[in-house]
Amino acid sequence: MKRLGILISGRGSNMMALADAVRERRIPQAEIALVVSNAATAAGIERARGRSIPAVVLDHRGKTREEHDRAVAAELERCGVDLVCLAGYMRLLSPWFIRRYEHRVVNIHPSLLPAFPGLDAQKQAFDYGVKFTGCTVHLVDEELDHGPIVKQAVVAVEPDDSVETLSARILREEHKLYPQAVALLLSGRYRIEGRRVVEM
Ligand code: GAR
């Protein structure tokens, strides 16, 4: 059984999509060992507890980035986590954390990276006037929204879209893509060649 740790900061819809996929065995032989939020107000915490998933709040305030990450890692280790999934976790990870979990931290981002990293990616893409955008699941390295790409999904921008309707369609794709990417990573049927994640 592989154990997932999920880090969130907000509503946690991607976390719930992973929980659904675990329950329905679309992510086989896995369980969610722990959800960690850096924000006490994160709606995702209550949603996790509603599913009887262990969930803790670790407030980052008043600590250095590494101090906070060490506290998070201690919880993840206590729960025997194999793979760390960032799901709307709005904090940069320290180099210390990245080294400790090298190639074992994965993130989802609502654009086709390397386009539109950072905050409000859907709005950035919409305002730029792209015809296609989407979402990306990638391994996490020390740069923001940057590591090797595991999977991407494309979403077309429709003429009558607003940022809200476009974001909602991207989110639906996120909820499909993230479980597929996590299932691949847990299966071990891939290798990393430089920036390339090659499925085997
Ligand atoms: C998602 O759209 C996710 O892709 C994005 O935050 C949202 C979290 O929603 N993440 C980033 O922008 C990371 N750079 P959720 O809490 O409902 O999963």
Tell me what the structure shows.
The mean pLDDT is 97. The protein contains 6 helices and 9 strands; from the N terminus they run E-H-E-H-E-H-E-H-E-H-E-E-H-E-E. The longest helix is centred in the C-terminal third of the chain and has 25 residues. Helix 1 crosses helix 6. Strand 2, helix 2 and strand 3 form a beta-alpha-beta unit. The chain has 200 residues and is of the alpha/beta class. The chain is globular, with a radius of gyration of 16 Å. Bound molecules: glycinamide ribonucleotide. Glycinamide ribonucleotide binds next to helix 1, strand 5 and helix 6.
Question: How are the SSEs ordered, and which strands pair?
Answer:
Layout: E1 2-8, H1 13-23, E2 30-37, H2 43-50, E3 55-57, H3 65-78, E4 83-86, H4 95-100, E5 105-109, H5 121-128, E6 132-139, E7 149-156, H6 163-187, E8 190-193, E9 196-199
Helix pairs in contact: 1-6
Bound molecules: glycinamide ribonucleotide.
The site of glycinamide ribonucleotide has 16 residues, from helix 1, strand 5 and helix 6.
Number of strands: 9
* Radius of gyration over all CA atoms, rounded: 16 Å
Average pLDDT: 97
Strand adjacency order, main sheet: 3-2-1-4-5-6-7
Percent helix: 25-40%
For this entry, what is the oligomeric state of its chains?
A: single chain
The 3D shape can be described as globular
Q: What's the domain count?
A: 2
* Low-confidence runs of at least 5 consecutive residues: none
The CATH superfamily of the largest domain turns out to be Formyl transferase, N-terminal domain
Order of helices and strands: EHEHEHEHEHEEHEE
